[in-house]
Amino acid sequence: MAAKVEIDGSSALLSGDLVFSTVLSVREQLESAVDRAEQQFVVDFGSVSRVDSSAVSLWLCLQRRSHGRKLELKAQNVPAELGSIARLAGLESLLS
Description:
The chain has helices spanning about 25-35, 55-70, 80-90, and strands at about 5-10, 10-20, 40-50, 70-75. Helix content is about 40%, strand content about 30%.
């Protein structure tokens, strides 16, 4: 299943499979939205059905982008799979 992004101002709802084959199109959309945000940007993973390690890479890219803009980035409804992958990489604090 393809990944989709619905952007509403300073938040985004992700859905579908957030895996290697889908993450690039999602990344471009999210980076563009982060660039337009003013103080905070929230990414809601609530409708994501499957993830792999590329989802952690996506989050790291968004972290770097938001940090450079002094923008607060928040994750909501993080799937257990994504939390587990982040924990294995020692990056779980980035998603909290």
